[in-house]
Structure formats: structure tokens, C-alpha cells
Description:
Elements: E1 7-12, H1 20-32, E2 37-40, H2 59-69, E3 74-77, E4 80-81, H3 87-100, E5 105-110, H4 115-120, H5 128-147, E6 151-154, E7 159-163, E8 177-180, H6 186-194, E9 197-199, H7 206-219, E10 228-237, H8 241-248, H9 254-258, E11 261-263, H10 265-278, E12 282-287, H11 293-302, H12 304-307
Parallel strand pairs: 1-2, 1-12, 2-3, 3-5, 4-5, 5-8, 8-9, 9-10, 10-11, 10-12
Antiparallel strand pairs: 6-7
Helix pairs in contact: 1-2, 1-11, 2-3, 3-5, 5-6, 6-7
Amino acid sequence: MAHSDRRLRVLMEPRHGAGYDDILALARATEDAGFDAFFRSDHLLGVDPTDTTYRPTDCWTTLGGLARDTSRVRLGALVGAATFRQPGILATIVASLDEMSGGRAELGLGTGWYEREHAAFGIPFPGTGERFDRLEEQLAIITGLWRESPFSFEGKHYRIDDNRTPPRPVQDPHPPVIVGGSGPKRTPAIAARYASEFNGALGGDLRERYATFHRACEAIGRDPAEPRLSAVLPVACGATRAEAARRGEIIGSDFIRENAAVGTPAQVVDRIGDLADAGADTVYLHIYDIHDLEHIALLGAEVLPHVARPALTAG
Length: 315
């Protein structure tokens, strides 16, 4: 494993959406339990588009609130949709979050995939090839604005004309950038060029996805050991098998259930160990019932100490 520290993070994707007070309660529970970071999904509809109880919230607006209402956990999106926001605006949003949080922001960005969600909110949804093109241009613009001044960019979909007052994040050189997915070609190629962390997504052969990403790094002369490797693990943990099964009932589709860790703390630790064996140094525990704060406390007390390992220090 390239990175000596192993990180365990919480990823929130509520089945029925959430108001800010609920999101804040979960973020504070995450912080109190000792986790490294609190991430949320970037969605305006739930998995079931007919669910009229879903409460949409804007990802980065709520993260801005958490920047002031939490003190330690890192904050980000896994992953934001490049279709939702113009790159210059997104660069400014994330830099603002970084300043508001004292340097705790991370940017996860992907192509966007949920066509019905886009239609429901009047957001254009181009074809797959164009969405990848836009993602690549957005990452070039965002990282360019964060690093350079003045900055200009001329692409097929976006143009930046001599920006002499670009947004400046607190972190140097800029907040970590997370790119990931299961695509065999463009996803690893884009991640190799721009990502601080490659996320292997859910399901399939994680080891092979990491190997493909490493080959993409080598193809452009980047050290494959430099970026982090992460994975997502839907989780329903219980002190007993019955409690775990009860928590597992809220996990959504059959695909997610098949790839979830449903069981006792020891069983969840074993599943995280499998991901580590495949190469992951960072695991996002995917939480669906955001009101079950005892679940977070259990994971922090009985799983986190057996997984997270701090970076080795000199001397």
C-alpha cells in the first residue's frame, strides 16, 4: 500500500433526502466518533424518482454550513456532478468552503449519471462522451484557477478569458481532488491527470480498477504510488446479527445490498480488510439511515480502532 495511513470516512446518502439539521447531526456524530471525514452525495433526487417524500438540498451549500458548524472532519462530495455547475463557479465555491472550514475541503467530481434527476430540475444531460469531455475540461479549469494567475482556457465546452483574480483556497497547492468510477478508459485517464485520489466505485474487480489506474498514471509519467486509492462500502453494522439485519433493511437496491457489509463490527472490519488487500487506503462507509446516530457511534467505537492507522512520523 502506497500510503502508510489508512482512513475510514462517512458518506451520507439518505434514502429520503434530509434537512440541514439532520445533516448537521450526522456530521457532528461523525466528528465525535473520531472519523477522518464527512462526505455527502450530490443529488437532487433519490434512487426512486417517484419518492415524493425526498427532500433535496444543495450539496455545497450544506457543506458550507458544516464548515462553520464542525471543527475537525474534512468535508466533501463523493462525487459532485460536473453537469450541475460551471467550472469557474465550482472552483470559487470549493475555495470558499476551504476558507470557511480552515482548509478542510475536498472536491469529488464525476460526469453525472442520473438522467431523470437532470430532467426534473431542468439541467441539460448530454451524451456520455460529451459528459466525459466536460468533466475533463472542468478539472483543467478548476485546478488551473487554483494554481495560476492570470489563467485562461479555451476548450470545446468552456472558456476562461484572462482571469486575473482567481479563487484561492487555503490548502497548498489546492484541496484534494477525487475522481473515480468503473469506466475502463477515460475515467482512469482523467483521474491520472488530475486526481489526488482515485475512487474505485462499487462492485466489480477493485484490484483490476486500481491496476488500470496505475497504468494510466505510468502512461503520463506520474508515480502511481502518489495518489490515494479509495473505495465505497455500504454498511449496516450491529452489535448482534439481528441488529445488523434491521439496519440493513434500509439499504436500497439489490446491487447495493450485494456489495454491502451487513453484520457485526468484526464482520465489517473483515470486509474493510478485503478492500485494503485490494489496494484501498481509504474507505467511505456509505450510510443510508441518517437518523440512526447510534450506528455511527458503534462504527466509531468498534470498527474504526481496528481499521484506521495514522501516518508514520519520522523519529
